[in-house]
C-alpha cells in the first residue's frame, strides 16, 4: 500500500505543479524561487482563502493552533497573532523541534514579520524537547498547507517527505491532540483534486479544505494513532530529536 500510495501521490504532485506554474498561481520563494519540490508555495488570492479560514467555527473557537511553517500559512499565522491566539509552528525539517508564538511575545506592529520564518527565530519561544512542547499545552486545531488535497478522502501530499504525517502523530503521541482535533488545509482551488489515491496507514487527513472561493468538508475517516517505526529510516529518525525522544519512550533500552 505504501508503494502504491507514494507513486500515485508523485503523479498528483507533478500534475498540480504544472497547473501552479503554467497558470502563474504559485508565488516565488525568495530562496527556492519556483522549485516547488523544496517548499509549499503561497498562492494567488491566499488572502481570500485566509479570510474564509478565520471565519470557520474551528478557527474561531481555538485558542492554540498548530500551524505548519509553509509560505501558504504565513498570513494565517499573522492573523492568529493579531487575534491573540497562540500558535505552535515546527522549525524547518522539525530538526529543532517547534516554536511558540503568543501575543505578548510580539511587539505591536511586528505581527507580519513575526509570522515569517525569520521573525519566529527572533520572537518565538523555542520548544526543543517533548517536555517543552507538552508544557505549551493542548492543540485546538491544526492548519497545514499542501501541494494537493483530495476532496474524496482528505488525503494530502506536500513535498513528499511526510512532514505533516510526522507532525500529526508526534503531537498525538505527546497527548496534545485527540482523534477529532480539526485538521484544516489551505490551498488554491487547482490544488483540490478529485483523485482517490491510496492512503498509507500513517497518512494524516484533512477534514476541512479552504480555498479562495470555497470551504469543503471531506468524509470523516480515522486519523493515524500509531507511529510506524518500521518505515522510518535511521537517518530520517535521527534528524528529528523529538521523534528520537518518542522512540526511546516507546522502545526503552533493556
TrEMBL record:
Protein name (Swiss-Prot/TrEMBL) = 5-formyltetrahydrofolate cyclo-ligase
Pfam families cross-referenced by the UniProt entry: 5-FTHF_cyc-lig
Q: Which cellular component, as a GO term, is one annotated location?
A: cytoplasm
The UniProt entry, under SUPFAM superfamilies, shows: NagB/RpiA/CoA transferase-like (SSF100950)
Amino acid at each position: 500500500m505504501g508503494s502504491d500510495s507514494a507513486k500515485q501521490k508523485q503523479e498528483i504532485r507533478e500534475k498540480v505543479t504544472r497547473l501552479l506554474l503554467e497558470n502563474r498561481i504559485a508565488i516565488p520563494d525568495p530562496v527556492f524561487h519556483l522549485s516547488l519540490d523544496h517548499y509549499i508555495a503561497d498562492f494567488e488570492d491566499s488572502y481570500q482563502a485566509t479570510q474564509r479560514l478565520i471565519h470557520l467555527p474551528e478557527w474561531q473557537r481555538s485558542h492554540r493552533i498548530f500551524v505548519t511553517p509553509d509560505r501558504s500559512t504565513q498570513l494565517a499565522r499573522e492573523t492568529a497573532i493579531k487575534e491573540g491566539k497562540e500558535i505552535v509552528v515546527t522549525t524547518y525539517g522539525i530538526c529543532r523541534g517547534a516554536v511558540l508564538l503568543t501575543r505578548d511575545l510580539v511587539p505591536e506592529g511586528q505581527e507580519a514579520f513575526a509570522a515569517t520564518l525569520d521573525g519566529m527565530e527572533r520572537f518565538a519561544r523555542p520548544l526543543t524537547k517533548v517536555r517543552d512542547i507538552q508544557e505549551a499545552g493542548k492543540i485546538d486545531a491544526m492548519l497545514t498547507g499542501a501541494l494537493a488535497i483530495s476532496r474524496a478522502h482528505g488525503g494530502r501530499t506536500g513535498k513528499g517527505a511526510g512532514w505533516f504525517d510526522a507532525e500529526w502523530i508526534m503531537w498525538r503521541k505527546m497527548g496534545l491532540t485527540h482523534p477529532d482535533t480539526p485538521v484544516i488545509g489551505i490551498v488554491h482551488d487547482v490544488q483540490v483534486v478529485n483523485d482517490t489515491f491510496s492512503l498509507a496507514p500513517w497518512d494524516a487527513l484533512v477534514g476541512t479544505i479552504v480555498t479562495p472561493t470555497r470551504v469543503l468538508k471531506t468524509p470523516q475517516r480515522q486519523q493515524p494513532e500509531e507511529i510506524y517505526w518500521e518505515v522510518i529510516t535511521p537517518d530520517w529518525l535521527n534528524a528529528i530529536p523529538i521523534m528520537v525522544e518518542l522512540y526511546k519512550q516507546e522502545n526503552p533500552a533493556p
